[in-house]
Amino acid sequence: MRQLHLLLLVIILCAVGLGLAIYKVTTLGLPLTTSEKAEVWNVEARISFRAKPETSVKVSLPLLFNPSGYTILDEDFVAANYGLAIEQDDNGRTALWAKRRAEGKQLLFYRAIIYKDTEKTTDSVKAPIYPPIPDYPENFRPIIQGLLDKARQQSADTVSFAQQVIKQLNAVSPAPELKLLLEHINNSRNLAKGVNWILAGARIPTRIIQGLRLEDGKLYSELESWIQVYDGKQWRTLNIKDGKEGLPSNFILWQIGDQKTFSVDGGSEVSLQFSVAKTLRELVDIAESRAALKGSHLMEFSLYSLPVQSQNVYKILLMVPLGAFVVVLMRNLIGIKTFGTFMPVLIALALRETELAWGLLLFCLIVGLGLLLRAYVDRLKLLLIPRLASVLTMVVLLMASISVIMHKLGLEMGLSVALFPMVIMTMTIERMSLTWDEAGPAEAFKQGAGSLLVATIGYLVMNIDALQHLIFVFPELLLVVLAAILLFGRYSGYRLTELWRFRALAKR
Amino acid sequence: MFKVLLNLKRAGVVGINRRNADYILRYNERSLYPLVDDKLRTKRLAITAGIAVPELYGVIEIEHDIGHLPNIVNGHKDFVVKPAHGSGGNGIYVIIGQINNRYQHNNGSLLREEDLEYHISNILSGMYSLGGQPDHALIEYRVKFDPIFESISYRGVPDIRTVVFRGIPVASMVRLPTRMSDGKANLHQGAVGAGIDLATGLTTNAVWQNHPVEQHPDTGANIGNFKIPHWDKLLTLASQCYELVGLGYLGVDVVLDRELGPLVLELNARPGLSIQIANGKGMQKRLEYIDQLAEIPASAQERASFAQNLCLQL
Which residues form the ATP-grasp domain (chain B) (predicted)? Predict the structure, then answer.
């Protein structure tokens, strides 16, 4: 019954710990190893214009809206003394800046930090309404009709039909009858609109999408237009220059449709420029921002929400249970004797600051000198507490003098001696000297060496960077450590040293 | 190494982890520990229950009372000073006589009044107690051990340790002080441990410093096949201690006084496992057998003979 209870508890702890960690890895994208960085893109829209005197200024700019394949981690708006409102509906978002009076050159920025998402979001496609045939001007009507008829002959379905139309419009030497039409449609922006307009003549649902290519260091980029054709099931994207299907992989969709447009009221010399730059960011930061966007409160209560200084403290503290686990293994499985149960863990923590070899050396130095002084104090026949206090005082003085002497010798490691837990050192000296008196120097050295061995192993385990990162990012893994410790709480097998101790009995 | 492990398992050797997890944690209630950790309480309980213990001359509880020492020991030429919470025989001074106003320590030195008072003061300050808690000093009757042990012990009093599980003796050994153990009867301090056959009360084999020995290292006398006097009485006495403190897994230390017979010296809630080495035999099988008993005999005498029968089988 008790075993079953323990087993269930262990299973629950493991499940909760691992489950949370797996959730954080898969859903929030927290990195399993240290210093994993991911590419993020800084996309900036820069609006500049000269304000017309004595008029109020109104600027509207379509914003990034749920770009598929990307997540907006952060965005900000920079505009001096402008009122800002953001309008959002099904077709997208628009930023509206307004100012009653403005003078001279005006600069407005919209900046978004976006991150390429591994998970694909497939938008549910709503069947669009089939457009009515536009009321073409009298002189264009036969031309467009001819164009559409020719395309229909050379195509099999909606998409290839649209491709044919685009090809004809973009031909190097266009058919002479199209010249008038092409003059009407003269630049890229209008080309998309023109294709849209012409395809409506065949009652094909189309829409224009605009977006940016993410290329690092591109300072003056503009929104590119693509046309999407509905083939009865989904939207297919076509290049308006050559009719090829598909978007480039680094394309980020800025807006769908042309209901929302960039406009500046009350300004002249208007320009809108986009710039794109790639930077690296810690995956943890990204995961944090994404969790906030997804409305997950898990990251809000993570250790990353603490001030950096406390974070650093917890980076160390969270490793203590692992040190304790090492002690459990060493004592209950191996059977190494130590002074005090968790003294080795505290020594291991101090070793982190002093480096291993120096730490062990300094530890031996202080304990050795402390034992000598303790032996002297012993002759004075002092009562227990005053004796402990006097040894503590001497330990502090020893530590101070070691620091000063080593500093003078130019050995900076001597300064870190102050990080040794002095009360623990005092108790170690006291226990070691009692063991020395009661069980002889051999036993005292055996336990001393055992303590240092466990401290060293604890230090080595607690200092594994990958482990440190793992525990800090996924503190719930400590539940798994707890489960392992609980399991060892019911371990009733032999200790390794007992095989040696009882060897005489094994021979029979 | 794996072979050693299998052999140990086959020999039924109990390891520390098993002792703690399966016996001490399950059968020894924490609240009962003070009864055995405080020798004064054990002694008082034993006296009420009519179990023979060395006579208590007096207790010194506070620093100020140390002055009463001469009154306490008045009329007793020899006595023992021990900490109430001591362990492993530490802090015990055996005074074997008084000459010229000095106390004769059994290690041969002469102690002045103030030397002994300083020692008692150390005891009171918790020098020998677990965790350094303030302690009391007991002053009691010095056991005059049965002369039959003369040949196989070197200074100090041999004692007989019996592990009692659910009131039934499981294993027993006699611990013989040596020069190395400084008169103390603790195996890891260098005493010789000799296993005792529960059925006959005869010593079987002996270990010293984890090695099998046949002769006492200091006296050279043979240790094996030595008949422990008052054996049945001693075993019953050990069984009785179960009712006394209620601990399921208990170590009972008994000394044999030449006039008073077996006296309970102290009880232990976490008896060591060296007794298995001294006996050359693991305790696991007997412990498991007793663990599965639905009912254990009510009287201590029945339990003692139950143990004697059991040891013939397992």
Answer: 43-298
Min Cα separation A385/chain B (Å): 8
B122 and B167 part of one domain: no
Residues B170 and B284 in one domain: yes
The pLDDT tens digits for A294-324 are 767 777 777 777 777 777 788 888 999 999 9
Selected for mutation to probe chain B from A377, A505, A507, A508 (highest B CB count within 10 Å) is A505
Q: Does residue B208 form part of some domain?
A: yes
Domain check: are B181 and B65 in the same one? no
Quickly list DSSP for B226-287: PBPTTHHHHHHHHHHHHHHH--SEEEEEEEEETTTEEEEEEEESS--SHHHHHHTS-SHHHH
Decide if B179 touches A, using CB distance below 8 A.
no
Q: Please tell me which residue of chain A has the smallest CA distance to B24.
A: A492
Structure tokens at A489: 């709480």
Cα separation, A32 vs A299, in Å, equals 15
Among residues B54, B27, B42, B85, the alpha carbon closest in space to that of B240 is found at: B42
Report the share of chain A in percent with pLDDT over 70. Answer: 94
User: Do B186 and B275 share a domain, yes or no?
Assistant: yes
Burial pattern A1-28, b for ≥16 Cβ within 10 A else e, equals eeeeeeeeebeebbeebbebbeebeeeb
Give the start-to-end residue ranges of the domains of chain A: 36-129+205-295, 135-192, 311-474
Complex confidence, ipTM? 0.81
Q: Is residue B44 part of a domain?
A: no
Instruction: Select from A332, A489, A506 the Cβ nearest to the Cβ of B8.
Output: A506
Quick check: pTM over 0.90?
no
Could you tell me if B164 and B259 lie in one domain?
yes
Print the domain residue range for B119.
Answer: 55-140
Q: Has residue B243 been placed in a domain?
A: yes
| B240-to-B41, B42, B228 alpha-carbon distances in Å | 16, 13, 19
DSSP sequence for B94-132: EEEEEETTEEEETTS-EE-HHHHHHHHHHHHTTTTSGGG
Q: Which of A490, A471, A483, A476 is nearest to A320 (CA)?
A: A471
Q: Specify the DSSP element, H or E, that contains A212.
A: strand A206-213
Q: Are residues B27 and B64 in the same domain?
A: no
Question: Among the three residues B78, B110, B140, which one is the final residue of a domain in this structure?
Answer: B140
Comparing alpha-carbon positions, the chain A residue that sits nearest to B186 is A439
Provide the token pair at B53.
């213990």
